[in-house]
């Protein structure tokens, strides 16, 4: 009975990767799950959980060094795809099973118009002539909601926005009416508002074309919106699987519980976020006392920004240049010991604000008053004294640490530059203390960044800032690249440090739930301008501007019991 | 880039392998790379030994007959050698007596007596040499060893200076961009628009002939490719967050250029260095072949090949083979080692 309604069955799938002559890394350790016909199955897990590897083995898209033992099976239409000949796989790929990848920009070929790329799939798999393929491509583009599909046919990928590129990818994927659509983190690289549209689109298409969807994601919020069944994976094994309702309402496995709990929620603000360890080795979430946030009239300001503007100039023609205003007339006050959240979609200028405050960009206009002194008018030499007091943590912990420096070098360098610590010995001593403070072992001092995971590297970046004892810390998407559970740990660390040292944060993020959790005050930006500034709770409860409302409406709400009932 | 640490900080903690140690480990796993490394090291040892006079110090002694056969071809006919031997025999035959009409005749006896006082040792010239001899009967094998010394020395030093020029200019252009970049690009374009050989010939014509001249010429003409690559590498790295982070902590321009970025571009520079060693060894050969290379009292692979073109016509191939094989083995080993080095040194920004 089960065989009839399952489109695809994965049985005891094991995948290992040969690293070098002696080492083998086991990425997937005996995974079994079914994809029923006309259902959406979500494969959830953090990075390294083996979710993408499992999905890619369905299409035989594993790298050269992958080893799949003979007793692993992926049954599709009565045949084992793992043992299918290449021709058969090629016939299935794109026609019966198709994929959407995370990065639409890199998945589309930049030198061909998008219409041609869709047409190619149709010609290849459906045997259409070029005219028929072009006609069908226009239909597909209009189906995925691209305006003026006739004109867009001739556009190159770079002429489209990220959301439109992902729509084109989806159009290509559904071109041949596939039975199974594999979506590998299709919305992770997109803004929330676009994410919402894409999720709706996938759900609609699934309905209309009677497809099955295998949805791979790390974000449980997204899963709750779209999935019928959920498979939770951790380090290569399935921890729990079941209907979405069961997973969200009565999770059994502690890991699932942890994943659900450690994501900041819009309606609660515990003093500390629960982390995976609380659930795996402890009693579960304990400290649920709420923290109250907000800025009062009388709070002293540490940083006051007035009319900040930044314009970039693009070359146009031989001598001309075009002004592109990235930040227009931004003013705000940062209260001492408080956190100001900065939210907006990509291109809203929020990162530019951060970099300009640090003078990593030269501002075009405005004032940045730090303790009453205008940072923007200081000379480089005068600025040195203030550099130390205002620091930044970047988004990508993989890129922000020099790969050729040991952690010891990374931590002692700023102290050397600013003459902190009497001698090298004192600096090393301080570095050890800071490592302990951010929760890293002493041995880290001698290691290189590539030996650490993303979360650990972000801790190193935080420790580097702390060496200079700053007053203001700008966190530029500092937790966006991290897994949910690691995100919770780093957020807790940042909060602890604020409580301990009275740091003031400017917290830049596109993730509205995280910003809501950590911020006292929130500033919403759109296209370089401030839309609204208000206390965090105020802005979520009573947004004054349309744009803010639109932004808030697109946050994935996660599991919603009413949806299941419908 | 290892940390300067007091030893008492944490003696129990094992220092984790640095990137250079890791690169060495990766290189050791690469068999081809290791064989090539051994070959290159042997050549370098040979160069040092020859420089110290331990081997081939007597390369310019005329040991054999002209165009002496290689030992393994002892029986082969050698017309040139016989001709020379015959000529020697003839000269020792008594000259025709012209004393009646020769005004100097009375003094011949006196001169002969005086000449007899000077000890003349007849060098017994051997018929064969281990790998044959050149026109003057010098041992080709020793010549090749001595030639290797000059060629490798020229290659290494010229490559070092070319890389230095290319790296510094590339770093300046890539890091500062704007006017500095425009100026250096302009300079680079002018430089590369002149045909390479013509440029070398122009330099060679201006400077006097000598080893140092060749090195200067090669360094001054060879930096362009390195400059472009280093510049590109700097442009790429300047936008990286770790450089921004260094700026945020207040690191100076010089520190960002040479302490932060340079180690991350070092794999490109190192590979360029070794590639240029190879191409400069070849360039020295070309220069010497054209007669603009090393002075006549020295020998390099280039001068050997230049001599070989005339010898080849009369069927004396050993000088060509000795110099050619010596160079081919080194150049191949060096290029393949370079490939392995590039793989081993790639820092992989994970």
How are the SSEs placed, and which strands pair?
The complex is a heterodimer of chains A (566) and B (350).
Chain A: H1 2-5, E1 6-18, E2 24-36, E3 40-44, H2 51-58, E4 66-67, E5 73-76, E6 79-80, H3 86-92, E7 97-100, H4 104-107, H5 114-126, H6 130-143, H7 149-152, H8 162-174, E8 180-184, H9 192-209, E9 212-217, H10 220-226, E10 229-234, E11 237-243, H11 244-249, H12 254-262, H13 276-280, E12 301-316, E13 320-335, E14 339-343, H14 350-357, E15 365-370, E16 373-374, H15 380-387, E17 390-393, H16 407-417, H17 424-437, H18 454-466, E18 472-476, H19 484-501, E19 504-509, H20 512-518, E20 521-526, E21 529-535, H21 536-541, H22 546-553, H23 561-565
Parallel strand pairs in A: 3-9, 3-10, 7-8, 8-9, 14-19, 14-20, 17-18, 18-19
Antiparallel strand pairs in A: 1-2, 1-4, 1-5, 5-6, 10-11, 12-13, 12-15, 15-16, 20-21
Chain B: H1 19-29, H2 31-51, E1 64-70, H3 79-92, H4 105-117, E2 126-129, H5 140-176, H6 178-193, H7 196-206, H8 211-238, H9 241-248, H10 253-289, H11 301-313, H12 318-345
Parallel strand pairs in B: 1-2
Helix pairs in contact in B: 1-12, 2-5, 2-12, 5-6, 5-8, 5-10, 5-11, 5-12, 7-8, 8-10, 9-10, 10-11, 10-12, 11-12
Report on the structure:
The complex is a heterodimer of chains A (566) and B (350). Chain A has 566 residues and is of the alpha/beta class. Chain A has 2 domains: 185 residues, P-loop containing nucleotide triphosphate hydrolases (Rossmann fold, 3-Layer(aba) Sandwich), CATH 3.40.50; 261 residues, P-loop containing nucleotide triphosphate hydrolases (Rossmann fold). Chain A has a 6-stranded mixed beta sheet, sandwiched between helices. Chain A starts with a helix and ends with a helix. The mean pLDDT of chain A is 85. Chain B is mainly alpha-helical and 350 residues long. Chain B has a domain of 228 residues: MetI-like fold (Orthogonal Bundle). Chain B is 68% helix and 3% strand. In chain B, helix 1 packs across helix 12, helix 5 runs parallel beside helix 12 and helix 11 packs antiparallel against helix 12. The radius of gyration of chain B is 28 Å and the shape is elongated. At the A-B interface, helix 16 and helix 17 of A face helix 9 and helix 10 of B.
């Amino acid at each position: 009975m089960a065989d009839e309604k399952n489109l695809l069955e994965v049985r005891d799938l094991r995948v290992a990767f040969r690293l070098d002559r002696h080492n083998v890394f086991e990425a997937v350790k005996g995974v079994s799950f079914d994809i029923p016909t006309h259902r959406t199955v979500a494969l959830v897990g953090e990075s390294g959980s083996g979710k993408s590897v499992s999905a890619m083995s369905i299409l035989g898209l594993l790298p050269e060094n992958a080893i799949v033992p003979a007793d692993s099976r992926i049954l599709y239409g009565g045949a084992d795809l793992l043992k299918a000949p290449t021709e058969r796989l090629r016939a299935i790929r794109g026609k019966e099973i198709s994929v959407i990848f995370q990065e639409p920009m890199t998945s589309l070929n930049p030198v061909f118009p998008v219409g041609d790329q869709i047409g190619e799939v149709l010609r290849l798999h459906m045997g259409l002539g070029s005219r028929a393929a072009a006609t069908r491509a226009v239909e597909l583009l209009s189906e995925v909601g691209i305006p003026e599909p006739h004109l867009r046919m001739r556009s190159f990928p770079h002429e489209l926005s990220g959301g439109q590129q992902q729509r084109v990818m989806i159009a290509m994927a559904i071109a041949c009416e596939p039975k199974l659509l594999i979506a590998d983190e299709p919305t992770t690289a997109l803004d929330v508002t676009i994410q919402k549209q894409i999720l709706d689109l996938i759900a609609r298409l699934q309905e209309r074309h009677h497809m099955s969807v295998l949805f791979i994601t790390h974000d449980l919020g997204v899963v709750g919106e779209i999935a019928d069944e959920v498979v939770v994976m951790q380090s290569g094994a399935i921890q729990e699987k079941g209907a979405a309702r069961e997973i969200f309402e009565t999770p059994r496995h502690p890991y699932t519980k942890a994943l659900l709990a450690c994501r900041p929620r819009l309606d609660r603000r515990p003093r500390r976020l629960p982390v995976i360890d609380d659930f795996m080795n402890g009693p579960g979430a304990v400290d649920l006392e709420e923290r109250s946030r907000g800025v009062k009239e009388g709070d002293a300001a540490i940083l006051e920004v007035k009319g900040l503007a930044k314009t970039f100039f693009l070359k146009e023609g031989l001598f001309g240049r075009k002004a592109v205003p990235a930040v227009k007339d931004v003013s705000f006050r940062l209260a001492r010991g408080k956190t100001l959240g900065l939210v907006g979609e990509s291109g809203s200028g929020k990162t530019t604000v951060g970099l300009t405050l640090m003078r990593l960009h030269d501002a075009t206009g405005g004032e940045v008053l730090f303790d009453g002194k205008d940072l923007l008018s200081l000379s480089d030499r005068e600025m040195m004294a203030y550099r130390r007091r205002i620091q930044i943590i970047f988004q990508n912990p993989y890129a922000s640490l020099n790969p050729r420096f040991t952690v010891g070098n990374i931590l002692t360098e700023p102290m050397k530059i600013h003459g902190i610590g009497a001698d090298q010995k004192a600096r090393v001593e301080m570095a050890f203390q800071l490592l302990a403070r951010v929760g890293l072992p002493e041995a880290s001092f001698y290691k290189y960044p590539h030996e650490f995971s993303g979360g650990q590297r972000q801790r190193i970046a935080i420790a580097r800032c702390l060496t200079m004892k700053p007053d203001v810390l700008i966190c530029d998407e500092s937790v966006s690249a991290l897994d949910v559970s690691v995100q919770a740990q780093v957020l807790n660390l940042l909060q602890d440090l604020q409580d301990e040292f009275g740091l003031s944060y400017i917290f830049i993020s596109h993730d509205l739930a995280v910003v809501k959790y950590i911020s006292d005050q929130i500033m919403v930006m759109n296209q370089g301008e401030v839309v609204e500034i208000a206390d965090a709770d105020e802005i979520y409860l009573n947004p004054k501007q349309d744009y803010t409302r639109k932004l808030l409406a697109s946050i994935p709400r996660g599991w919603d019991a009413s949806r299941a009932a419908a | 880039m290892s940390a300067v640490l007091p030893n008492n900080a944490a003696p129990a903690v094992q220092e984790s392998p640095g990137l250079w140690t890791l690169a060495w480990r990766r290189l050791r796993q690469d068999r081809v790379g290791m064989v090539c490394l051994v070959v290159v090291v042997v050549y370098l040892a040979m160069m040092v030994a020859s420089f110290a006079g331990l081997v081939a110090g007597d390369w310019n002694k005329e040991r054999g007959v002209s165009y002496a056969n290689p030992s393994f071809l002892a029986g082969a006919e050698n017309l040139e050698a016989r001709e020379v031997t015959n000529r020697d025999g003839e000269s020792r035959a008594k000259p025709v007596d012209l004393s009646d009409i020769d005004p100097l005749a009375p003094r011949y006896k006196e001169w002969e007596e005086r000449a007899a006082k000077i000890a003349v040792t007849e060098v017994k010239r051997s018929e064969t040499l281990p790998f044959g001899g050149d026109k003057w009967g010098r041992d080709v094998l020793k010549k090749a060893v001595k030639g290797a010394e000059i060629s490798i020395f020229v290659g290494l030093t010229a490559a070092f200076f070319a890389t230095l020029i290319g790296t510094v200019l590339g770093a300046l252009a890539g890091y500062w961009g704007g006017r500095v970049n425009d100026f250096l690009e302009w300079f680079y374009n002018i430089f590369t628009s002149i045909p390479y050989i013509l440029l070398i010939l122009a330099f060679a014509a201006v400077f006097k002939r000598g080893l140092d001249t060749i090195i200067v010429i090669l360094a001054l003409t060879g930096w362009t490719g390195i400059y472009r690559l280093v510049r590109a590498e700097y442009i790429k790295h300047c936008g990286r967050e770790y450089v921004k982070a260094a700026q945020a902590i207040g690191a100076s321009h010089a520190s960002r250029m040479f302490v932060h970025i340079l180690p991350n571009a070092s794999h490109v520079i190192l590979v360029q260095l070794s590639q240029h060693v190879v191409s400069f060894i070849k360039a020295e050969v070309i220069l010497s072949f054209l007669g603009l290379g090393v002075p006549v009292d020295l020998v390099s692979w280039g001068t050997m090949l230049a001599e070989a073109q005339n010898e080849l016509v009369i069927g004396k191939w050993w000088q060509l083979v000795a110099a050619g094989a010596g160079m081919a083995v080194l150049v191949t080993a060096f290029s393949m080692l370079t490939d392995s080095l590039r793989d081993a040194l790639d820092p992989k920004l994970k």
